[in-house]
UniProtKB/TrEMBL annotation:
Residues 20-156 form the CcmH/CycL/Ccl2/NrfF N-terminal domain. It comes from Falsiroseomonas stagni DSM 19981. GO terms for cellular component: plasma membrane. The chain crosses the membrane at residues 112-131. Keywords: Cytochrome c-type biogenesis, Heme, Iron, Membrane, Metal-binding, Signal, Transmembrane, Transmembrane helix. Residues 147-166 have a biased composition (Basic and acidic residues). This is Cytochrome c-type biogenesis protein. Residues 138-166 are annotated as: Disordered. Possible subunit of a heme lyase. One of its GO terms (molecular function) is metal ion binding.
């Protein structure tokens, strides 16, 4: 435990710049690629956070450092500089790469199964749990009486009817 704490104490200062200074951890845009107009650059970055890196798959092109992400960032900036709206840039990339390029793909009937599968799986799981609990909560049916038990029961019944046993 002491070694772990010592390692943590030695490595913590290395993480401080990434935590304290926003943009240091995600400074993936080359300054030469940035747009001279700050408002357009901000639009390009916001739009880049909505576009999926085709290589990394779970990162936006703004967060990815691979060459394809850089190329897509340049395409976004070129389109914005050419006067395209955000929707037009999104539509251009969507037409070229399909739903996969969008980090938040639109809800369509073709993607409904993907959206519904986790919910359906949870409902089935909860139903199975409830059914198994109900079945285990019900008492087991009594075992049939053996011949000896039947004979003793008949004898007790006869005694009770005769009044010999009170």
């Amino acid at each position: 435990m002491k070694r772990f704490l010592l390692a943590l104490a030695l490595l913590a200062p290395l993480a401080a710049p990434a935590i304290l200074v926003p943009g240091v951890a995600h400074a993936t845009t080359n300054p030469a690629d940035m747009l001279p107009d700050a408002a357009l650059e901000q639009r390009a970055r916001a739009l880049g956070r909505e576009i999926r890196c085709m290589v990394c798959q779970n990162q936006s092109i703004e967060d990815s450092e691979v060459a394809l992400a850089r190329d897509l960032r340049l395409v976004v900036r070129e389109r914005i500089t050419a006067g395209y709206t955000d929707a037009q840039v999104r539509d251009f990339l969507h037409a070229r790469y399909g739903d996969f390029v969008l980090l938040r793909p639109p809800f369509t009937w073709s993607t409904a199964a993907l959206w519904a599968t986790p919910v359906v799986a949870l409902l089935i799981g909860f139903s199975l749990i409830l059914l198994s609990r109900r079945r285990s909560a019900q008492p087991a049916p009594p075992a049939p009486l053996t011949e000896e038990e039947k004979r003793r029961l008949a004898a007790l019944d006869a005694e009770t009817r005769d009044g010999t046993r009170a």
